Amino acid sequence: MHTVAAVAFDGMAPFELGVAVEVFGLPRPELGDRPWYDLRVCAERPGRDLRAVGGFTVRAEHGLDVLAAADTVIVPGVADPDAPPPALVAALRAAHRRGARLVSICSGAFALAATGVLDGRRATTHWRYAARLAERHPAVRVDPDVLYVDEGDVLTSAGSAAGIDLCLYLVRADHGAAVANTVARRFVVPPHREGGQAQFVEAAVRPPAPGGDGVAHSMAWALDRLAEPLTVADLARAAHMSERSYLRHFARRTGVSPMRWLIAQRVAASLPLLEAGDASVDEIAAAVGFGSAATYRHHFTRRMRTGPAAYRRAFAPPVAGSSRT
C-alpha cells in the first residue's frame, strides 16, 4: 500500500492539511477492492497539541521518522516561510534520498527549497510568496503564474485550492482518470484543472444562469458538443457576445484563451476512453473533436507529457493472464 505522510506543525493553516486527509485518508468504498493510500499525519513531536489557525489544536500520532520512510510526502503551507523547521528539512532530505515523491502546497515550497531538491527546477507557490521564494532561493526557477508544477519526484502547487488540484492530479497519475473523477465527485470539485492555468483570476467561473453569465453558458454549451468542430465565433454566439468582447471576458474569467481551454477539455474527455481500452486512437480523436489523430497526439503529448498509446498502456485495465509494471 502506498504510504502518504502529511506534515502537521504548530501554527499551521488547517485547510491544506485537510485537503491531504480528504483525498488520501478517507475510506473509498465506492472504489471496491482497489488498494488505496495509507495516510499518516506526522509532526516533529508526535502526541503533542499543535495550534492551528482559528483557535484549535491538532495532535499527530506519527513522528518525522515515519515521514522519512513514506512513499509520498505532502508539506502544507509552513507557518514561517523564512525558517522552516530544521528537523522537517532533514526528514524531507532523507525521504527524497530514499526515492519518495515530495509535494508542497502553498508556502510549503519553502520547506522543499530549503532541502535543495528544487535547485535548478521549476516550482511554484502562492503568488503572494513567489518573489520571496525566488529571492531567498535563487537557484529555484519560480513560476508564479501556474496552479502546480510536476517535476517528476518533486511537485509544487500554488495557494490552498490549487492543493486540491495537485492532489487530484496525483490520484490521476497513480490510479487513472476514472478514479480521479470519482474522488473529485465526492469532493464536489472539477476533476481536472490544467496545471498551467493562471493562478489569479478576477472572477470565478460560475454555473450558467438564465440570462446571466454568458461565458459560463458558452462553456457548458461547448462541453455538450466536444465532438463538433467549434470556433471562437461559435462560442461567442453561444454567449451572445461579439468575438472581441468574448475573448476579453473569457480570459478574465479563466486565465486562458477559449481554444486552449477547449483543447484541454477534449484531452480530459479522451482519458476515460483511452482507459476503457476499446476504441482506437483515431476513433477517440474523432469522438472528442480533434480533426485528426495526429492533431490529437500533438495536443495530448503537450498536456500529458506522454502519448495516448503510452497513457493507455499505463492506465488501461490489464488483460487477464498478463503482467504490467
Name a few traits of the molecule.
single chain, 325 residues, 6-stranded mixed sheet, 14 helices, 10 strands, globular
Helix-strand makeup class = alpha/beta
Oligomer: single chain
Amino-to-carboxy terminus distance = 15 Å
Q: State the major sheet.
A: 6 strands, mixed
Specify the overall morphology.
globular
Q: Tell me what portion of residues adopts beta-strand conformation.
A: 5-15%
Radius of gyration: 21 Å
Report the uncertain regions: 200-211, 319-325
Figure out the total of helices: 14
Topology readout:
Layout: E1 3-7, H1 14-25, E2 38-42, E3 49-52, E4 56-59, H2 64-68, E5 72-75, H3 86-98, E6 101-104, H4 109-115, E7 122-123, H5 130-136, E8 141-142, E9 148-150, E10 154-157, H6 160-175, H7 177-187, H8 214-223, H9 232-239, H10 243-254, H11 258-276, H12 281-287, H13 293-304, H14 308-315
Parallel strand pairs: 1-2, 1-5, 5-6, 6-10, 7-8
Antiparallel strand pairs: 3-4, 9-10
Helix pairs in contact: 1-6, 3-4, 6-7, 8-9, 9-10, 12-13
Task: Explain what the structure shows.
- The protein has 14 helices and ten strands.
- The chain is an alpha/beta fold and 325 residues long.
- It has a six-stranded mixed β-sheet, with helices on both faces. It has a two-stranded antiparallel ribbon with strand order 3-4.
- Helix 1 (14-25) packs parallel to helix 6 (160-175), helix 3 crosses helix 4 and helix 12 crosses helix 13 (293-304).
